[in-house]
């Protein structure tokens, strides 16, 4: 007899007393119909399914029991969150959205932002006051047009002093407004080396920032430096966004035509993105490993077994020499210098980890974030793809579906990837991104030049300690991530949904 591996909840279930939602077209749909999509998708794809008892295939003995379970969650977000494995320590990256159009725009590099990226610190000699330091301003953004600069300090939002007592007691919700003002200040050490008299002082300037949709070009800065007899290419790359792959290839064509000897790849603020773009970037850096294993994938037990039995090649990502038929401009380097910090995550780490078995990767900066899992977008359709999506709502999920391993099996770097040369950014003296004198880039150039300058740079990397409280990345709807859009055979999914028992 044929059985549904996952109970299907359709029109036979009453929607009386079920919570209801309205989609963008004002169509009303029961919460349980969306919950049904959430549970089925997580049951099938979730990387940590084996660790979640409520996702077990035999969890429910009848459709009625399944319906009661779904009905116990008034919102799809609550059900989704209940199925996450160790949110604080393991799965910090799965998420659900109620507007998949916005999610798709996000993956295209487009989001509604003001363009100011910043970190928040405890104000010296106060118990709970907080101040912010701008670390980067996106080109073409409202913050850019208003003159906000890297290194700017602010301490008030809409006239309110920023404060932090705990995760549940702060006023960081002020950053959620579509428009807000920041009050600028300056760090005053009062001319002494001690921090006991340090203060944040006002400079009596306020800037109002507005959030508008901005499509960010992840290629933030490129340059070629002459170091005596050596030419060094520099690329600051802030996101693995597929729409800019062709432009990335053009940049490498310029590096190639200028016959650069070395490359500095700056991923210090890159939270990740497309796995395929990571493969392309690594293949542009090299070129001599086409067809070799770039990385492999490890899914949940059921999916892993099914793929291994049916098409194990699906678990392997290989170095390539073209992008949809367009030849890659590969540099054939045997060494690369990568700037990476604790803001560098997922696909950034994938590039570092996957290149490491093949070439000499000199990592300069800090430990990276430690994200080795990838997600995919699940839609409410028969095979969870975009095609045939349920028109009655606009929910979608982005759950973790596999973890990545390099060609020698390295994964699970929970504490991030450790740098070869440890250096931190001095937030009170950030310097100009892409300038040869900026601390992290200067360190990379010093190593390439082998002139002894590195020792001096490291000796100067001793500055006023600041207590980090939070970061602007955490205020985004979608934070750091590594995602794939590969298509799995529909027959495999169908067998999962309708299997012979």
Short description:
The chain is of the alpha+beta class. The protein contains twelve helices and 32 strands.
Alpha-carbon distance between the two ends? 7 Å
Mean pLDDT, all residues: 89
Q: Number of helical runs?
A: 12
The CATH topology label of the largest domain is 2-enoyl-CoA Hydratase, Chain A, domain 1
How would you characterize the largest beta sheet? 7 strands, antiparallel
Beta strands, count: 32
Please state the structural category. Answer: alpha+beta
Look at the structure and give the CATH class of the largest domain.
Answer: Alpha Beta
Please state the CA-atom Rg, rounded to the nearest Å. 25 Å
Count of the domains: 3
Low-confidence stretches: 1-28
List keywords for this structure.
501 residues; Pdz3 Domain; 2-enoyl-CoA Hydratase, Chain A, domain 1; 3 domains; seven-stranded antiparallel β-sheet; 12 helices; 32 strands; disordered N terminus
């Amino acid at each position: 007899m044929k059985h549904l591996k996952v109970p299907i909840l359709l029109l036979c279930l009453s929607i009386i007393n079920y919570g209801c939602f309205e989609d963008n077209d004002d169509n009303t749909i029961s919460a349980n119909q969306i919950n049904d999509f959430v549970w089925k998708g997580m049951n099938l794809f979730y990387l940590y399914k084996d660790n979640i008892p409520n996702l077990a295939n035999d969890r429910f003995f009848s459709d009625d029991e399944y319906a009661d379970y779904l009905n116990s969650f008034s919102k799809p977000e609550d059900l989704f969150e209940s199925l996450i494995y160790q949110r604080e320590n393991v799965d910090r990256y799965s998420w659900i959205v109620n507007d998949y159009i916005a999610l798709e725009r996000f993956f295209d590099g487009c989001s509604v932002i003001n363009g100011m990226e910043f970190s928040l610190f405890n104000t010296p000699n106060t118990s709970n006051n907080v101040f912010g330091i701008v670390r980067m301003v996106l080109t073409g953004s409202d913050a850019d047009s208003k003159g906000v600069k890297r290194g700017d300090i602010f301490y008030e939002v809409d006239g309110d002093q920023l404060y932090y007592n705990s995760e549940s007691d702060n006023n960081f919700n002020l950053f959620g407004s579509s428009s807000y003002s920041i009050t600028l200040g300056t760090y005053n050490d009062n001319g002494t080396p001690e921090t006991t008299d340090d203060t944040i002082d006002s400079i009596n300037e306020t800037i109002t920032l507005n959030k508008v949709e901005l499509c960010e070009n992840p290629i933030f800065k490129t340059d070629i430096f002459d170091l005596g007899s050596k030419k060094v290419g520099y690329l600051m790359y802030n996101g693995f966004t597929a729409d800019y792959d062709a432009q990335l290839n053009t940049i490498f064509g310029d590096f190639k035509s200028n016959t650069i000897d070395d490359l500095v790849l700056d991923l210090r603020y890159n939270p990740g993105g497309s796995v395929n773009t990571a493969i392309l970037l690594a293949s542009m850096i090299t070129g001599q490993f086409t067809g070799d294993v770039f990385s492999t994938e490890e899914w949940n037990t059921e999916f892993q077994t099914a793929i291994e039995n049916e098409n194990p090649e699906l678990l392997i990502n290989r170095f390539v020499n073209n992008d949809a038929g367009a030849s890659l401009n590969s540099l054939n380097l045997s060494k690369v210098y990568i700037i990476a910090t604790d803001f560098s995550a997922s696909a950034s780490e994938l590039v570092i980890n996957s290149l490491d078995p093949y070439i000499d990767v000199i990592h300069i900066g800090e430990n990276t974030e430690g994200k080795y899992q990838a997600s995919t977008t699940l839609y409410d359709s028969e095979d969870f793809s975009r095609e045939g999506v349920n028109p009655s709502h606009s929910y979608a999920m982005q759950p973790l579906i596999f973890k990545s391993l390099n060609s020698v099996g390295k994964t699970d770097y929970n504490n991030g990837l450790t740098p070869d040369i440890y250096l931190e950014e001095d937030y009170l003296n950030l310097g100009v991104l892409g300038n040869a004198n900026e601390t992290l880039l200067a360190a990379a150039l010093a190593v390439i030049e082998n002139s002894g300058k590195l020792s001096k740079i490291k000796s100067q990397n001793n500055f006023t300690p600041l207590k980090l409280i939070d970061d602007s990345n955490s205020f985004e709807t979608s934070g750091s991530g590594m995602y794939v859009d590969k298509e799995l055979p529909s027959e495999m999914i169908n067998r999962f949904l309708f299997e012979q028992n």
